[in-house]
Design brief:
The complex is a heterodimer of chains A (about 270) and B (about 325). By secondary structure, chain A is an alpha/beta fold. Chain A contains seven helices and 15 strands. In chain A, about 30% of the residues lie in helices and about 30% in strands. Chain A: InterPro entries: ETF_a/b_N, ETF_b, ETF_beta_N, Rossmann-like_a/b/a_fold.
């Protein structure tokens, strides 16, 4: 069993996130592994741990990120959780990629790993917390020509097939497909593990494998700002809200709330 | 360039949801609107579409094996959307910002070689006639504009982006069938149970008012629900409240993103993940017994107090106000 987990390097949600020149500022001091990709890593590791004895030893989990070198932070975190290998796809030509450019780079990295041996499963998070697109997993599945099983709440791999359940806005569903497939994992699927001391120590010395767009044979016309089909033309912080009107409840707080709503024609 | 054709996804087709009416309102400002659907629209739906200026509904005819539960798979919806864009020569494709529609639209963009904007809060055109989507990002802290540089523009638009308006003149609406082939590798849908929509309350995604309860309810959503009903609001929760099993749907970055006219958070601290899903609301009100609660930083109005006291009292005053009108 070989599993590739796509992990994104994003600005920390608790830090002050900003744009400069219409691009997201990726300050290395405040960049981190996309939290939702911890659910993806956890799912991948659990799938391996559920394999019968004998298959576990030969299993391999590879974390792949498309990011500038600062993105190693995300791969280190993946090592700490227990993945075997970390691959970073970096190239100035990739800067400014849209969903399609990012997907092309991820797909090329998966194919590159497939040259060594089959990749049974590609696992992703349900969304990247910077852009909240939730579209890369489905696009990646299409690009790789594999079935897409996204937004999983429960995950099971058995007999060469993947089965998930999911809860969308509309319905509760069970989906299955033979491997190889693409899986995205919802934040409700699991509780990501805390790394133990041993893994933290081991993660420090693990080598990160670097690939360029030339290594992957990526067409410069489809990636980066050159290939992007959308361009951000303006980004501005929203004006500060006026000071909050704060009422201490001394028995009339509910009345004050209702009167505020009535006064502002919100009722 | 108002001779554009704007195609709007209608799914389901037995009712026209307010999110679809909003898309039609946005679409009419850009050009001529048409709709695409995967099932036969109801008589009521057709009348409503006519009132909103839709002359043609393009109804996909799928191969037999895809007419059941599989028809909801995003890869199937995507093929329908792409085929409908080609058939109508549409310039813009609009869909609501649901998880499934985001995927379908992105896949359609892939098939069409079109630029995709997810979660637009507004759609307009620039001086060169290119489609521009505005977005609120980073938990509502930044406004961005993105321009689509391809001839076809594909967008999902979040609810409450505009107030839906009927067309100046109603039109007669016709349904035209068209055959769609699906080549994508698909999973098998072994079971699908549609969620019941609460008939007494608006849905969380589309509501003009949302009242959400958090850990501070200590498991009793009674006051939250009663206050919501006094306002005619949808009810939501924080993720912690849902994980505790106190309610079924949560607002936030990984839950439902809402941007209503009014959002009320009761017993919710205002963690960044929660804020990311509601900070674009027009007016934000909170009830929290901790004067240091982070949610107060983004509020317009707040009461420091126990929600079990504050909400029932507020509901009573609101009901009396409504009765007196
Ligand atoms: C990857 C990830 C994704 C997440 N996505 C989401 C998401 O989409 N949505 C989401 O909501 N959360 C999300 N979370 C969780 C989020 O980080 C917070 O943990 C959660 O929002 C906190 O919920 P809460 O405000 O109900 O609880 P708390 O933070 O515990 O706050 C409870 C509040 O209630 C107040 N209170 C207590 N008693 C009373 C009373 N009697 N009357 C009035 N006030 C009272 C307290 O002062 C406190 O401020 C996510 C977390 C992770 C890691
Ligand atoms: N640049 C990237 N590098 C690696 N994985 C990514 C990247 N962008 C997106 N992903 C994966 O796709 C998921 C969804 O991202 P998105 O569609 O951007 O919200 C993430 O949770 C990641 O698993």
């Amino acid at each position: 069993m070989r599993i590739v987990v796509a992990v994104k390097y994003v600005p920390d949600i608790n830090a002050e996130r900003k744009f400069a020149d219409c691009r997201v500022v990726r300050d290395p001091a405040e960049g981190t592994l996309n939290e939702l990709d911890e659910n993806a890593l956890e799912a991948a590791l659990q799938i391996v741990e559920a394999l019968p004895e004998g298959e576990q030893e030969s299993a391999e989990v590879v974390a792949v990120t498309v990011s500038p070198p600062e993105g190693d932070v995300a791969l280190r975190k993946a090592f700490q959780m227990g993945v075997h290998r970390g691959v970073r796809v970096s190239d100035d030509a990739l800067a400014g990629s849209d969903y399609f450019g990012t997907t092309a780079a991820l797909a090329a990295a998966v194919r590159h790993l497939e040259a060594e041996g089959p990749v049974d499963l590609v696992v992703t998070g349900m969304a990247a917390l910077d852009g909240l697109g939730s579209v890369v997993p489905a696009l990646l599945a299409a690009e790789l020509g594999r079935p897409s099983l996204t937004f999983a709440k429960t995950v099971a791999v058995a007999g060469g097939a993947l089965e998930i359940t999911r809860e969308t806005d509309e319905a509760t569903e069970t989906l299955t497909a033979p491997l190889p497939a693409v899986l995205s994992v919802a934040d409700t699927a699991n509780r990501p593990r805390f790394p133990n001391f041993k893994l933290i120590m081991a993660a420090r010395s693990k080598a990160i494998e670097e690939l360029s767009s030339a290594d992957l044979g990526l067409d410069p016309a489809v990636v980066g700002a050159a290939g992007a089909r959308t361009e951000t033309t303006a980004a501005a912080p929203r004006p500060e809200k006026p000071e909050v009107e704060l009422v201490q409840d001394k028995g009339e707080g509910g009345k004050a709330l209702a009167e505020y709503l009535i006064r502002n024609e919100l009722v | 360039m108002t001779n554009r054709t704007v195609l709007v996804l209608l799914d389901p087709a037995d009712e026209v949801r307010s999110s679809v009416l909003e898309l039609l309102t946005i679409g009419r400002a850009l050009g001529r609107v048409e709709a695409v659907t995967l099932e036969a629209p109801s008589v009521e739906a057709l009348a409503q579409l006519g009132a909103h200026g839709v002359e043609t509904v393009h109804q996909a005819e799928l191969p037999a094996e895809l007419r059941g539960d599989a028809r909801h798979l995003s890869a199937v919806v995507a093929e329908v959307l792409a085929a409908a864009v080609r058939r109508t020569d549409a310039d813009v494709l609009l869909a609501p910002s649901t998880f499934a529609a985001k995927e379908a639209v992105a896949l359609a963009g892939r098939a069409l070689g079109a630029g995709v904007i997810i979660d637009a809060a507004g759609v307009a055109e620039d001086d060169e006639g290119r489609i521009v989507g505005t977005k609120r990002v980073f938990a509502g802290a930044w406004d961005t504009s993105s321009r689509v540089t391809t001839d076809v523009a594909v967008l999902t638009v979040r609810a409450n982006a505009v107030v839906p308006q009927p067309a100046e003149a109603a039109v007669a609406t016709e349904v035209e069938g068209f055959a769609v082939e699906v080549g994508a590798a698909l999973p098998t849908v072994t079971s699908r149970t549609e969620k019941e929509r609460d008939a007494d309350r608006p849905t969380l995604e589309e509501a003009a008012i949302v009242v959400a309860g958090g850990r501070g309810t200590e498991g009793d959503f009674g006051p939250v629900q009663d206050f919501a009903d006094a306002l005619g609001a949808a009810v939501g929760a924080s993720r912690d409240a849902v994980f505790e099993g106190w309610f079924d749907r949560y607002v936030g970055q990984t839950g439902v993103t809402v941007a209503p006219r009014l959002y009320v958070g009761a017993g919710i601290s205002g963690a960044p993940h929660h804020r990311g899903g509601m900070q674009a609301s027009q007016v934000i009100v909170a009830v929290n017994n901790d004067p240091e609660a982070p949610i107060f930083e983004i509020c317009d109005f707040a009461v420091v107090g126990d929600l079990a006291d504050v909400l029932p009292q507020a509901a009573e005053v609101i009901r009396a106000h409504k009765a007196a009108r």
